[in-house]
Amino acid sequence: MAENNGPIAVPKEWPAEVVHIYEPVKFLGQGGFGMVVLAKSKKEKTQLHAIKVVGSKDATRKEIGYANREINILTEVDHPNIMRLVQHWEPAADSHRNCVAVMALSYAAGPTLQFLVNLGGRLSLPFARVVCAQLVDAVSYLHGRAVVHRDIKPDNVIVTGASKDDDEVYDDIIK
Questions:
Q1: CA pseudo-torsion sign 64, 60, 32, 127
Q2: What does each C-alpha distance from 109 to 15, 29, 33, 48, 82 come to in angstroms?
């Protein structure tokens, strides 16, 4: 699915319960195990969530296990630098499922760390320190609960409050 800045169609993977609650706003990204769409609540129009579709209709038993583990972990964790699970839906095993699960997650507005690096190059040391400290704090929190995050990378780190035009983000000595 290509990025689209205008209204988008309801993803076919969304179960009726999700369509009843949320309206898709824009496509946010696609990973190896799912896609994420920004959606607004039909009831509270200003409330935004990231709706993550996990797996496919052809998911293996192992992929179903990963999805269930992710839901279980997100149900238990509560940290300011980790997305919060708001609600989730799992199609019945006997239904004609299009995915393994759909999750409504808290939405963090901001660019990814990968986007910032690709756009402006080297990050300033003060900015990098803040991002690293928060990342280490979140990973430490997870490790303290026997959770190992298997996909930590700049594209999965959302930097709220950062702007591509913010001079404090980049190291201007190199430019």
A1: positive
A2: 25, 13, 22, 10, 13
Task: Write the DSSP symbol of residue 85.
Answer: E
pLDDT at 92 over 80: no
Say if CB 38 and CB 107 are below 8 A apart: yes
pLDDT (tens digit, 9 = 90+) per residue, 20-55?
Answer: 999 999 999 887 778 999 999 999 989 999 999 998
pTM: 0.85
- Exposure string for 17-30, b = 16+ CB within 10 A, e = fewer: ebeebbebbebbbe
User: How far apart are alpha carbons 175 and 173 in whole angstroms?
Assistant: 6
Looking at every residue in the chain, the average pLDDT score rounds to 87
Q: Is residue 151 annotated as part of the catalytic site, yes or no?
A: yes
Query: Which residues in 43-60 are b (16+ Cβ under 10 Å) and which e?
Result: eeeeebbbbbbbbeeebe
CA torsion through residues 68, 70, 72, 74, sign: negative
User: Do residues 97 and 15 make contact, with C-beta atoms less than 8 angstroms apart?
Assistant: no
CA 142 to chain centre: 17
Of the residues 58, 94, 151, 165, only one is catalytic, namely 151
